[in-house]
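anyone seen this seq b4? input:
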Amino acid sequence: MGNPVLKIGMEETSPIHVARKTVQLGVFSAEEVAAGLANGRFLSTDLAWTNGMAAWKPLGEWPEFAAAGAPAAPLDAEPAAAVGEPLAWEKSKGLKSAWVSFTEVLLRPAPTLTVSRLELGSVLSLAWVLAAVAALFLIVGGSLHAEANAAFQRQQAAQMFESISGAKGSMDWLLPWAEYLQKSEPTSVAALTVQGLLLVLFGPLLNLLLGIWVWLGLRLLGVFGLASLRQADFGRTVAAFVLAMAVLGLLVAPINLLPASMGAIFGLPFLIALLVLACRSVGAAIRVNGWAVFSSQLVLNFLACCLAGCCLGGLIALLRP
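predicted toks r here
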């Protein structure tokens, strides 16, 4: 008799994506997965995802397949020759593939980034393309609302002067910034174009540096006891962060089509979305919980602030007569 096949308690189930490490094995029905677990085709450590799941999960943790007798992965198991299913952008370069990759990362960051190759060079090129599209919104919106944006900045300067005068000298350090805003004039199309070019050229590079900072935080938290973070892959961590920032940058770019007075309202939601997408993307890429990524940044930034405070205090003590 053949190997038993686990019967799922539903007539129709969503297709199940199965991956081993960074290798995409394919899309299967629940019956095929159960049969594969029973005959050794699939391992209990293989990752799987289906519609409605927030992240990939080992087959051994699926209640539906608990009775299938899934074998454990052999100690000498090696990944297949392929290194993962590429993003649409990694398959072909073009605006269409850039858009497909953008929507995949935005709508399904966990299943997309868990099995993607995430080559840093390719991700950077995609980030530059997305930044170029975002820059168009900056130029067009800035041109449409040049007068209104300048008036809003002068209004902000007036409010800052009022706060400074009422603080009795404790906020004098804001005077240069308030004076700068007070002189705001409508920004020309040429100046907006320069700003857009700077965004395209240096935005992804800045996110590259921030991605390295995120990786350092993960390794630091790994030293403190989280073994899963001690081997956080440098390339995948940085590439996932750069890609997440590029996707979010394009997502919020249409805000530039609004006057600055209205765009300022979206500042806090923007920061929250930035944090959530970055943590989820990096976590999916290196297969750790997004909260671990968030915690690592809390620890690293806290230690960095403490170190900066100690250095500043020491410098003041040395310079004091």
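DSSP finds 13 helices and four strands in the chain. The longest strand covers residues 23-28. kinda curious what u guys think
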